Amino acid sequence: MTDTLGVGVIGCGNISTAYFRLAPLFAGMEIRACTDLNMDAARAQAAKFNVDAREIGDLLKSDDIDVVVNLTIPDAHSAVSCQAIQAGKHVYSEKPLALTLRDGVEMQRLAREHGVSVGCAPDTFLGGAHQHARHLIDAGEIGRIVAGTAHVMSHGMEHWHPNPDFFFRVGGGPVLDIGPYYVANLINLIGPIKRVAALSSSATPTRTITSQPRAGDVIPVETPTNVHALLEFEQGATVTLSTSWDVWAHDHGRMELYGTEGSLFVPDPNFFGGDLRMAKRDAGVMPVTGWHHPLSVPNDPHGEGMMANYRTVGLADMVAAIRDGRDARCSIDRTLHALDAMTSILMSGETGQFVDLTTTCSRPEPLDPASASALMR
Ligand SMILES: NC(=O)c1ccc[n+]([C@@H]2O[C@H](COP(=O)([O-])OP(=O)(O)OC[C@H]3O[C@@H](n4cnc5c(N)ncnc54)[C@H](O)[C@@H]3O)[C@@H](O)[C@H]2O)c1
């Protein structure tokens, strides 16, 4: 194996630009080729980012590609990742890993059989803000976490994404689309989950696209868009997770963790940075500053200002883990556990019963400032 692993991207849609733009921040890997069912999309990204456009079969046969990055739509994830594994490639997938736990477990089996690594987004929990939260929790600042709340609620995706259909199909919905950021961070901060319960609904059976170029198209809603869940963690904490695309506005914190010694107010796990606040016993809520982490430095234009965006750090960590023979932080075991939690939430929403998870995992190793720097060029 050479020091630099070659990366091939499958799926050249909306999110691929972030991967092409941000992967060069990290050491040990290089995007060399891309493909898509729509080869015009692949050729356009290839020209823009100076890589090769190859037919999918050719990319999977290419000796200069060690890792496939799967950026296809959710219901294609499992088939595309398994195809890449069978071609002997390591795989890093966008979330969700698969639509069912059974497909995810089969992927894990296949990866073991072929001796390759599989990792999965999200990697935002590796951002400076969330690693700072992890550092404070591990240092005992808020004691043992006993409870928490997380809210990810908005009015959906049809006002910005050019092809929002997949968000409202099975495999989309707020639990599987945005939930992964929250569940991955809860696993990072608290640990594995024991059982879940949920209530679910959808405000409307269809949605009308307001983004271009398909403004006015009416698309069916085939998965719940309003899901309120309870999570019981193996260490005993109980957390409320509210996910919805049927809410115009709300005033809840994104993530709050309540410990025996204080409370921690965690910024949006969909992003790498943000402000962290903490309240100790009998004291008011105060900002927590003085932590310098390379993955909280604003580097990317967003809205009116700059924000920290280090998407692909999970891929870089997996590449380093392959090289060093260690566990990757965005490993398939953790992703499968998160998928188990999310599909169990959806199942509970259908049946009205608590669902015990059948998988578990360890917390990922923290990514302290020095370890994060080591992943960067
Ligand atoms: N758009 C975002 O901001 C965003 C953010 C985070 C994660 N994601 C995740 O990234 C994934 C892709 O999202 P997107 O917004 O880029 O979607 P998209 O629809 O814009 O792009 C998906 C691309 O995959 C291609 N594709 C579909 N099936 C394929 C197959 N079998 N083989 C090869 N190519 C195939 C499509 O032709 C399309 O070009 C999703 O899983 C999504 O959840 C997206």
Mind explaining what this structure looks like?
The chain is of the alpha/beta class and 377 residues long. 31% of the residues lie in helices and 24% in strands. It contains 11 helices and 19 strands. Helix 4 links the parallel strand 4 and strand 5 (90-93). The longest helix is centred in the last third of the chain and has 20 residues, at 332-351. The model has no long low-confidence stretch (mean pLDDT 97). Residues 10-16, 36-38, 41, 71-74, 76, 80, 94-95, 163, 177 line the site of nicotinamide-adenine-dinucleotide.
Question: How would the blueprint of this fold be written?
Answer:
Layout: E1 5-10, H1 16-22, E2 29-35, H2 39-49, E3 52-53, H3 56-61, E4 67-70, H4 74-86, E5 90-93, H5 101-114, E6 118-120, H6 128-138, E7 145-153, H7 173-177, H8 179-189, E8 193-201, E9 206-208, E10 218-220, E11 226-233, E12 238-244, E13 255-259, E14 262-266, E15 277-280, E16 285-287, E17 300-302, E18 305-307, H9 313-324, H10 332-351, E19 355-356, H11 369-375
Parallel strand pairs: 1-2, 1-4, 2-3, 4-5, 5-6, 7-12
Antiparallel strand pairs: 7-13, 8-11, 8-19, 9-10, 11-12, 13-14, 14-15, 15-16, 17-18
Residues 10-16, 36-38, 41, 71-74, 76, 80, 94-95, 163, 177 line the site of nicotinamide-adenine-dinucleotide.
